Amino acid sequence: MAFDRGKGLGDLTQMKILFPNKPFTQSKAFTLVELLVVISIIGLLAGLAVPAIQGGLDRARQQVDVSNIRQCGLIAFSYANDNDGNYNGSLTNVSTSLQYFTNLVSMGLLNSPKVLAGNGFVSATSTNNITAQNVAWAFVSGLTTSDDGQIPLFLSKGIPTLSSNVSLSGVTTGWKNKGAVVYRLGNSAEFIKSGAGGAAPGTINLGISTSATNQIIQ
Fold it and tell me: Would you say 203 and 166 are in contact if contact means Cβ atoms under 8 Å apart?
């Protein structure tokens, strides 16, 4: 059948009148370049958000650890009061922090294994099966309630020595080189961030005399 040019143009004119703002040749799909730009922007925003989210999670875990170590300190203070102010109590030859804390369990002073856990350490299911992997805190031996309140009684495992500035380079447990959780004799607990308080990067400032010689029991 022959094409009627006049009739065909008339039909197109009528369609333009009915749809004056609807171009028939314009595509509504995104181009490849537009899609790549959108994907790049989403990736950039995700990259910016992840560190902020991770930082928020770290701060939350730090607060949990600080709460746990403070509770351990209060329990130990009660034990010391029953032993003439001596935090070692009857454990004159304590060799591990696990030994110290399980002794508190046997004395009926520590009833929840959750307070022994910290970042990188899982909580024991009960006080009957506590292992070294369930204890996040090292014990500082040989202290009494009359000692300087700034001296730590408990702190994150792996800290090598008590001094004004402590290197974290060899710490492989807990918070590693990010910092450490500390409970002091004066009933203060805190998370000390690496490099904070004037300390060099990769170290923490315990704020105590370099002459402190008490032994850290891991």
Answer: yes
Alpha carbon of 44 to those of 41, 160, 199: distances in Å?
5, 40, 33
Mean pLDDT in residue range 29-47:
77
**DSSP state for residue 57 in the 8-state scheme:** H
Work out the angle at residue 211's Cα, subtended by the Cα atoms of residues 206 and 65, and round it to the nearest 5 degrees: 25
Phi, psi of 86, rounded to the nearest 5 degrees: -95, 115
Distances in whole angstroms, Cα of residue 79 to Cα of each of 72, 130, 153, 183, 215? 11, 19, 13, 16, 19
Mean pLDDT of 151-177: 93
Which of 153-162, 180-189, 205-214 shows the lowest mean pLDDT across its residues?
Answer: 205-214
* Orientation angle between helical segments 32-81 and 97-106, nearest 10 degrees: 60
Cα distance between residue 157 and residue 176, in whole Å: 9
pLDDT of 13 > 60? The answer is: no
Question: Residue 140 corresponds to which tokens in the numbers above?
Answer: 């500082």
State the Cα–Cα distance between residues 187 and 199, nearest whole angstrom. 23
pLDDT at residue number 202: 93
pLDDT class for 208, splitting at 50, 70, 90? confident
In sequence order, what are the residues at sequence separation of 6 or more whose Cβ sits closer than 8 angstroms to the Cβ of residue 105? 111, 127, 130
Where do the structural domains in the chain lie, given as residue ranges? 32-217
